[in-house]
User: Fold this.
Amino acid sequence: EADIYQTPRYLVIGTGKKITLECSQTMGHDKMYWYQQDPGMELHLIHYSYGVNSTEKGDLSSESTVSRIRTEHFPLTLESARPSHTSQYLCASSSGTSGRIDEQYFGPGTRLTVT
Amino acid sequence: KNQVEQSPQSLIILEGKNCTLQCNYTVSPFSNLRWYKQDTGRGPVSLTIMTFSENTKSNGRYTATLDADTKQSSLHITASQLSDSASYICVVSDRGSTLGRLYFGRGTQLTVWP
Assistant:
């Protein structure tokens, strides 16, 4: 069982609200990721980080932003939530050890519903 | 275009029966292929990871095969249990380690009935 945590697990919020989804890991991994997943669809990478103060946008355009001030913490923020943001958000981390398969460990996810 | 296609989309089997899930990919260059199990409302959990040189890998009742020439993989589940009900996701990486980009399939939704 991977030591990666996400809070809240479920969130129902009104349009226009600012929200922050929390993700933390205790494995000391340098690399962290945020994925978005709709029911029956594949995971899409929306943000990733290779270390403290490093953040990059993923393949899927997202209105969310991320920060990486501490190794173990990688929060995702939506400044103004909209119904189109309704989805499951999965956080993952990996050690990024050179020369080895970079296995990603996933958190339990946050199910976000914007009304 | 790099893609990962899984079949069937969904599958229902009776407890104790075996089943095989399929994955075809067009990802190139190929680094490794992973099978994940995702329970409803949870994050994916890794079952197996195979590199180019590996033809088969087992994890308990789960056995994955890889044919890198035809770009096909399968996941065989033996003596299914109710707890096997989940989505099984095939993921292909196009490079190793630090530059690895992952391509996800949409998953096969497996339901095991008693």
Remarks:
- Chain A touches chain B through 27 residues (CB under 8 Å).
- The mean pLDDT of chain A is 92.
- The two ends of chain A are 33 Å apart (CA to CA).
